[in-house]
Description:
Elements: H1 8-18, H2 30-43, H3 48-56, H4 67-72, H5 77-85, H6 94-103, H7 107-118, H8 121-125, H9 129-145, H10 158-161
Amino acid sequence: MPTPYLTPAEVEAIAREAHGAQTDKAGRPYVEHLAAVAEGVRSRGGTDEQIAAAWLHDAVEDGALSRQWLDDAALPQQVKDMVLAVTKRDGEDLGTYARRILATPGALLIKESDLAHNADPERLAVLEAATRARLTEKYALVRGLLGLSGGTVPAGRPEQACPATD
C-alpha cells in the first residue's frame, strides 16, 4: 500500500523548519517570504499542490532541503516537478529558466507569486539603492520572459521574447 502524501500543514511545517535559521536580504525571517508566496498562490486560485510547491519553492535552491529529500518525499510528482521548475540552477541563464517554468504545469503561478512578493516596494525599500535597482530590473526581466504583466524583455534578445518556443 503506497504511503499517503504529506498534508499541506506537514509541508508547511517542513518548510518552516528547513528555512528556520535563514533570513532574507533585509534580515527578516525567510519563512515570511515562503508564507507570502504560499498565500499569493492560494489567493490567485492555486491548488493544494501549487501551495505545497510554493512552501518548498526555494528549499532545494537554497540548500535548505536536498534534491534527494525532494525525490524521496511523500509528495505528488506534480509538486516535485513544480519545485524543480522554479529552482534556479547554477550558471543557468534566465531564458532557459523561464522556458522550464512555462513548460511545467502549475509552476508559473508559483513564480508569479514569488516575483510579486520579491518585488513588493515595501520589501525592496529597506535594501540599499544599488541592490534595489538591480533586483527590480531582474524581477521585471523575469516577468517579461514569463509573459507576465509589468515585465520587460531586453532589446536585441528576440530569443527571449518568446520563451515558450524552442
